Amino acid sequence: MVESSEGRRGADRCCPHVGIFFLSGWDFDLFGDPVPEGHRGRGRPPHEPTIESRQKCVLLAAVGKSPDEIAAALSITAKTLRKHYSRELRDHAAAKLKVEGKLLVGLVREIDKGNVAANKELAKRLDKAGLAELSERVRDRGTKAEKAPKLGKKEAAKVAAHEIAGKYSPRATPTIQ
Hints:
The chain is mostly helical. It has a domain of 48 residues. Helices cover 53% and strands 0% of the residues. The radius of gyration is 34 Å and the shape is elongated.
């Protein structure tokens, strides 16, 4: 390394981003999570949810990941995930709809700016949604009539006893004239 006139190494001059990279005023644990103010005890500091971790939780829930997989992605336990992210985990389908809605809004914004690729992508998504709706309507069209509910053992025995014909059939009730 080249020594500067002040007697220090020339690293500051050749690598000015070093001070930015090593955020000296910030404390992070081994997993990259910020350490809360005042925590200097033993063990891992308590988990502090951030906006980024909440968004990651919603996105992972939207793609159908299990709570254990989401917890592993956030480097926390499943119990901590349930404690801090219960709102984000309530409904996977709702999370998927939220993400899809945000994507569609983003596509519309890009279309307003004149982006032709966004226009094509939105058309593809709308066609796909229309085909899914049509397939739901057509799916029930060709099905057969519903079968009678399956009877239990005792009910089936009663029905079978009334259907016996011939020598062992129950006698007909007398008619009153």
